[in-house]
Amino acid sequence: MYKKILIFSILLLIYSACSSDLDFDSQFNNTSSTDSFNSSSSSFSYSSSSFNSSSSSFSFISNVQYQDTTYKDIVLADNNMIYLIDNSRLMKWDIENNILTEIYTFTPGSINKMIISDDLKIVYIAAGLQLWQYIIATETLTHVYNSPETIMSLFYAGNYLIIVDTSGAWESHRLINRFTFQEYHSQDWNDYSRTSLYNPSNNCVYYLDDGSTDDAVQYVKINTNLNQMETWGSGETYAYNTAHPIKMAPDCSRIYTAAGTIFNTNSSVSYMESLGTSYTDLVFYNNSIIIIHTYNYLDNIKSKILQLNSNYPYSIITTIDEFIFYAQNIFVHNQSLYVTGMHDGYTVGKIIDLSSY
Q1: Which pLDDT does position 13 carry in this prediction?
Q2: Which of 90, 204, 74 has the alpha carbon at shortest distance from 142?
């Protein structure tokens, strides 16, 4: 009799443990459970016509917009529209209404880079040897410049653009007027960079050298009187980890790298302090910093939107939101935060109301 009771008790314990594990895992796999992570962003609804969910491996997340595409670069323009590129297409995404419009198809596989001007009014696209300009207000796309070799990077520099192509030794930097597209100056021995920053207070462009093991922050100074790139420099070589994307403080005094390292913007580009965490993307809002912190948990990619103090030691003020997709980019528009990323091969987007933060 006692043996039967003991066996029954053991079986009951095993069943309870399994049930507990299933309940714990379900918060990441059951779509209804994700509502708890999305309570702050119920301002728009999902459109079922935007993607094909027939794949048995697809896991739907509620309160998130989906589009059946991937993206290489993405920007938010002054018209509150998101513009994105894949390997061959320029697209416009009205994320509030979840409408994706294809603007133009380039030669397949030719697009390497897209940037937007600091005033958010003009998009520049590198496609093969060609530079294209898309004016947001008039919705006009124009081929404006030819490079002698494939364009790998584009750096915004006030009234200029720096085009980085594969010609010369270790790629070339070409300084052109971003309105007339006249080429002023070129220089070899400068690698490309996925992201860059322009500092209008000292006419310097900061970037990371993606073609080298040297992970120091690099910069080039532009002489606006002579229309030339005059000075190249870098921070402490091999001393500190850096990573894309890099961001500049609103007062142009600091450069933040995704590794969490922070540098000044003077000629030495010296290390200043640590953010205390790495980030996937970063924006500034109401005297605070908002970051994406992405990590793996139980074989799922989770992303947190964290609000930090804007000064050292950059302590966490609050967790704004948390969800189960790979969040890659964030943009601030008025009191809204636009979050974009990838989930199961689809581009996803989410709007968060920042009015209470």
Answers
A1: 41
A2: 90
Confidence of residue 60 (pLDDT cuts 50, 70, 90): low
CA nearest to 341, candidates 281, 256, 259? 281
Length in residues, the chain: 357
Place of tokens 């459109």: 47
Query: Mean pLDDT for the chain?
Result: 84
Region of poorest pLDDT, from 91-95, 110-114, 265-269, 284-288: 265-269
DSSP 3-state of 171: coil
Residues 6+ apart with CB under 8 A from 188: 168, 169, 170, 171, 172
Separation CA 308–CA 259 (nearest Å): 16
The H-or-E segment that residue 84 falls in is strand 82-85
Quote the pTM value: 0.82
CA torsion through residues 50, 53, 59, 62, sign? positive
Q: Report how far Cα 135 is from the mean position of its chain's Cα atoms.
A: 22
DSSP readout, 98-140? TEEEEEEE-STT-EEEEEE-TTS-EEEEEETTEEEEEETTTTE
- From the CB of residue 9, how many other CB atoms can be counted at a distance below 10 Å? 10
Distance (Å, whole) CA 15 – CA 9: 10
Tell whether the model's pLDDT for residue 7 goes beyond 90. Answer: no
